[in-house]
Input
Amino acid sequence: MPSTRPQLRVAVVVGSTREGRFAPVVTQWLKGRLSQRDDMTTDVVDLAETPLPTVFPAFGRPPAPGTEEALALVSPRLAAADAFVFVTPEYNHSFPASLKNAIDWHNEQWHAKPVAFVSYGGLSGGLRAVEQLRVVMAELNATTIRNTVSFHNAYGQFGADGAVDDPQVDAAAKALMDQLAWWAHALRDARTTSPYAA
Output
């Protein structure tokens, strides 16, 4: 029996802005998985397509010209989301500066919402980036999902059509999305009943 609850709005935040990046391949795979669910809609927030300034205004001062226009392409979409999936590589045992910049430009948009991670890289599969992101998002009152999808030696895992032929990846993706849905519903219901107070 189909659910009568409103669909969850999931913002997929693509963290890499590097030229020649592998992120679009991973993101396309993720979009395909999310599209198979009838309880979620997806909005891809690609930081390479919506770049944000890297210079912050002084406390209490207005932002520099052009900043509000750049934020307008990202901030409302994060605010509207019920949940997030960060697609991130690992750079020097951490996550990209572009992703940290986008996180730091926002605050309330993350509050009392779940964040899941799909990472990729070499031997570590981006897991060190994910562990650091968990600490950052906890500071912003977000709830991180325990399960992840991690692509080790990512270039060799995707076929020419962008597909991944690995039952373990399928199982990991289902577990991640099921946990994300549970937390997203629970936290959305809670925010509706009582606005979150940081």
Observations:
- The CA atoms of residues 13 and 44 lie 6 Å apart.
- The mean pLDDT is 95.
- Strands lie at 8-14, 40-46, 83-89, 114-120, 143-144, 149-151.
